[in-house]
Specification:
- With about 350 residues, the chain is an alpha/beta fold.
- It has two domains: about 180 residues, 2-Layer Sandwich (Nucleotidyltransferase, domain 5); about 170 residues, 2-Layer Sandwich (Nucleotidyltransferase, domain 5).
- Helix content is about 35%, strand content about 20%.
Length: about 350
């Protein structure tokens, strides 16, 4: 999915707030995609709860929709000056097949609570989306929440934020842009490891393949033709080997017992063979993808992010070692670094996208 813009009680939510917190906001990238208009939503999408006595719209809201949770952050303040922020994290209710209606009801409630604490509405909203969308804004595929297939996401977003300038883009593309801005580089490859594997390429300061031409689906690069079957149905995708769930499944097989993320992290830190082997396979697959992308785009920097990768000790160094072993004489050896924004790259990219939007 490329960049797109449009005019204007369930789950678990945690919130944080900061009043007049100093510190620079993520600067917006310079690229902006075309406007696309979607039809009215079809199906029982819930309406956003109405907040009472709202003041004039101000500030921007970034939303990072993920397979297990949604991160939201509102910011208001001059660039480089004091910034007021409000944050919320919604963990989706139930299993990943709980249903789009239940998920959206929970998200609408979280947004209503955030509006109340913000004491007003948002001037612009940017949304990082992991799903594949059709031209009408309907979800065509999302392995992380398969029951969202057919859900009219963009029309639902327009109803949730009727007064805001609204834009949405692929989560990997937005993460790549945010990290490129922070690195001060116009040529960056980004790989994000979480519930799936996302990715983005910034070339010449702009995302590839470009507005209206889809997104950089790095998670579906084929790294092993005989590898495991991906959620997309194809065999050997990077995501099928290197995503968080894939790594945990491999760790369980090696250990012969269930493995949760905290156990994997502690096992890796302690050098437990089952944990090391499970993570090394993930890192080897990511290195293969990074080297392949390097052959095509010759980036100045390859960035590793995502919540799963961010929490594992020595993760980036392991990927870098595998990538160095794959280098060919005279070929590019990508400099691989951890994401400056950690697991928040897509969220800050969504904020940057919101800042690009003209007033609704």
């Amino acid at each position: 999915m490329g960049f797109a813009t449009g005019a204007p009680a369930g789950g678990t939510t945690t919130t944080t707030r900061t009043a007049a917190a100093p510190g620079p906001a993520v600067q917006a990238p310079t690229a902006q995609g075309p406007t696309t208009q979607g039809p009215a939503a079809q199906g029982p999408t819930p309406q956003a709860p109405t907040a009472q006595a709202l003041t004039a719209a101000r500030g921007v809201l970034g939303i990072d929709i993920g397979g297990t949770k949604v991160a939201l952050r509102a910011e208001d303040g001059p660039p480089g000056g004091p910034v007021r922020t409000e944050e919320a994290v919604l963990r989706w209710p139930g299993a990943r097949v709980a249903g789009a209606y239940a998920d959206w009801t929970a998200l609408a409630g979280t947004v209503a609570d955030l509006r109340e604490r913000w004491e007003g509405d948002f001037a612009a909203v940017g949304v990082a989306v992991p799903a594949t969308l059709g031209p009408d804004g309907r979800v065509l595929a999302w392995p992380g929440r398969p029951d969202w297939r057919g859900f009219d996401l963009v029309p639902a977003l327009r109803r949730l934020f009727p007064a805001a300038a609204l834009a949405w883009a692929d989560d990997g593309d937005l993460a790549a842009l945010a990290e490129a801005v922070h690195a001060g580089s116009g040529h960056v490859v980004y790989l994000g490891v979480g519930t799936g594997v996302g990715g983005g390429v910034v070339h010449g300061g702009a995302p590839l393949p470009g507005p209206g031409r889809g997104s950089c689906e790095a998670g579906h690069l084929i790294v092993d033709r005989r590898g495991p079957v991906c959620d997309c149905g194809r065999r050997g995708c990077l995501q099928a080997t290197a995503s968080g769930p894939a790594t945990l499944r491999r760790a369980e097989l090696l250990r012969g017992a269930p493995v949760e993320y905290p156990e994997l992290r502690s096992g890796l830190a302690e050098g437990a063979p089952w944990a090391v082997e499970a993570v090394e396979e993930t890192c080897a697959a990511l290195a293969a993808a990074a080297v392949s992308l390097g052959e095509l785009f010759h980036p100045e920097l390859t960035v590793l992010g995502g919540g799963f990768a961010d929490g594992l000790p020595g993760f980036t160094a392991r990927v870098e070692a595998h990538a160095a072993a794959l280098a060919r004489p005279g070929g590019p050896v990508p400099a691989i670094r951890p994401a400056v924004l950690g697991g928040l790259s897509s969220l800050h990219g969504a904020l940057a996208l919101a800042r690009l939007q003209p007033a609704a």
